[in-house]
Amino acid sequence: MNEMEDIMNSSSAPASSAWSRFAALTRHAFKMEFRQKNGLAGLILFSIAAVYTCYQVTGSRADAEAWNALAWVVLLFSAFNAVAKSWPEDAPEMRAYLVHVVRPQEWVLARITFFSLLLCGMSSIVFMAFILFLGTEHLNGMQAVYFFMGMLVTSVALASLLAMIQALAVRANGGFGLIAVLGLPLIIPVILIATRYGMDILHGISFADTAHNLLFLGTLSGGFGALGFILFPYLWSD
Amino acid sequence: MAHNIWKIGGFILIACVLVLVFAVPMGPGLLELRGTGDTAMSNDLDRKMPEYLLTGFGTHWSENPQDLQVLVRSKANLARLEVIDVLDDTHARIGLTLPYSVPSKSWDVLTNHSVDGTLLLENGLFLSDRFIDESIILSDIDIEEFEADLPFHFPYQPRILESIRNLMLHVPMWFTMFVLMGIAFVASIKQLASARATAEDEKAESAVRVGLLFGILGLVTGSVWARFTWGAWWVDDPQLNGALVTVLVYSGYMVLRNSLESAALRARLSAVYNLFAFVILIILLMVLPRFTESLHPGKGGNPGFNSYDLDSALRAAFYPAVIGWILIGLWMHRINMRITRLNKKLK
């Protein structure tokens, strides 16, 4: 039961305020993730291998449309790969303990934060691998910055929805298959908006004229986050 | 009896609408004016003229063939074409009497007939081999436009033609699905508020099940319509993709239900997922299509069915169809819910 003590001890004032519990949970999630080095390495390897596959199948001659489509599809599947598993904290006996020391809202916000940062990291890796293998001929100067910004905002939107879907699938004792069946259709609006934003950027449309897509993604993340905040207690309780 | 009146009402409405859909005739219209490659001798001008074949849709030209007048119009210019003879109700041989120099390439075609009234075919005549001189003015004749006094009929629309009848089948499917998914949404909220009972969960489940059926029927009727008007069973369009993804999302709901054993947990988890699903439904079908160009009527700057809404014949069939299908959907939902509850009691 070291993990539980970890959670409580890692906060400076144990279980004192909602904020410190939230911070402790987030920090603990990262600690657990980095402790399992082979799991993290597997995620990175998956992303790089996926990008390399794209590079091979397009024969390194991807046009702007293909570049954009592949980037978002690889990001989407990397995100699913990153979250579609059950963490040690998801075990029933851990949950039975955690319900007594933290509020479910703190837990779900910590989970969303953890997923957001994890997926931002994944998208950085995907983006760098894309630049390395598929080149930057479609991204000039600030375009690369804007495209990467879009990837980060999309990561947050993916994280805020997938946090709930992952929790649902864990509660239903379903594996990767259930997360894909429940998550993929729900995530399509996010990917559609992200793809449109990326295409605008690659076509050289000014950032100001396509920024409303990012705003839309931000609104979606906010909406998903709020839904998770309201509904997660029902998932968690017995 | 009194509390079942809405079921009888829905049944009668749908019966009437189905009769209307298949029995009401179509109004007349013009399909095309196409050159035959032949020439004919003109009676009035005493010279040869190119011959065209005018095809009508649901017209009655053979009833009073001498009444058929064919004209072409471009902005303020109006010219009469010569009717060589009327072949049957919907075909007539027309002689192009326009001079070699014309003020415009593209012309609207108009016909006047005592039975059909004035019909218009926009950009029906395109003259590619004429000399264009915009200073020419051809408007020495008057046309008396009038509405025909035809019996109850659906309006003619170019390209849509007879498939306008599908309006009473395709659109109400989605209205009904929206209503049923809305019922499921409310039932799921109530389910989360109630502690142990799963009555609201059964309500949500049967609403989603019947709603999915209506969604699939909407996809099928839409696909048939797309094949007729757009030429493909499926086109890449935000409205269509949104509809398909909505059906996938709710299929996910059914998968989630089937993967859970405990009734209480199933009620809670599927209620949570259902709330997400309804939010996505609103985003996919109400929000996203408005941001993008779309072929689908009523979305993305497409004027859609505004002109139909004004037509009294379509309105008289469409509104009862919507109400009737919704009532039938609610009835199916009630029956489905009772079957679910009886099955549970039997176990």
How would you explain this protein's 3D organization?
The complex is a heterodimer of chains A (238) and B (347). Chain A has helices at residues 2-10, 18-35, 37-57, 64-83, 92-101, 104-134, 142-171, 176-202, 207-236. Chain A has one domain (13-236). With 238 residues, chain A is mainly alpha-helical. Chain B has 347 residues and is an alpha+beta fold. Helix content of chain B is 48%, strand content 19%. Chain B is built from 7 helices and 9 strands, in the order αβββββββββαααααα. Chain B has a 7-stranded antiparallel β-sheet, with no helix packed on it. In chain B, strands 6-9 form a two-stranded parallel sheet. In chain B, α3 (199-229) packs parallel to α5. Chain B starts with a helix and ends with a helix. Residues 300-304 of chain B have low confidence and may be disordered.
Topology:
The complex is a heterodimer of chains A (238) and B (347).
Chain A: H1 2-10, H2 18-35, H3 37-57, H4 64-83, H5 92-101, H6 104-134, H7 142-171, H8 176-202, H9 207-236
Helix pairs in contact in A: 1-2, 2-6, 3-4, 3-6, 4-6, 4-7, 4-8, 6-7, 6-9, 7-8, 7-9, 8-9
Chain B: H1 5-23, E1 29-41, E2 48-57, E3 69-74, E4 77-86, E5 91-95, E6 101-102, E7 106-113, E8 117-126, E9 131-132, H2 167-193, H3 199-229, H4 238-258, H5 263-291, H6 306-309, H7 312-346
Parallel strand pairs in B: 6-9
Antiparallel strand pairs in B: 1-2, 2-5, 3-4, 3-7, 4-5, 7-8
Helix pairs in contact in B: 1-7, 2-3, 2-5, 2-7, 3-4, 3-5, 3-7, 4-5
Gist of the model:
The complex is a heterodimer of chains A (238) and B (347). Helix content of chain A is 82%, strand content 0%. By secondary structure, chain A is an all-alpha fold.
Terminal Cα separation of chain B, in Å? 31 Å
- Radius of gyration of chain B, in Å, reads 28 Å
Parts with pLDDT < 50 across at least 5 consecutive residues of chain A: none
Mean pLDDT of chain B: 86
Order of helices and strands of chain B: HEEEEEEEEEHHHHHH
Q: How many distinct folded domains of chain B?
A: 2
SS-derived structural category of chain A: mainly alpha
Strand content of chain A: under 5%
By secondary-structure content and strand pairing, the structural class of chain B works out as: alpha+beta
Q: How many angstroms separate the termini of chain A?
A: 22 Å
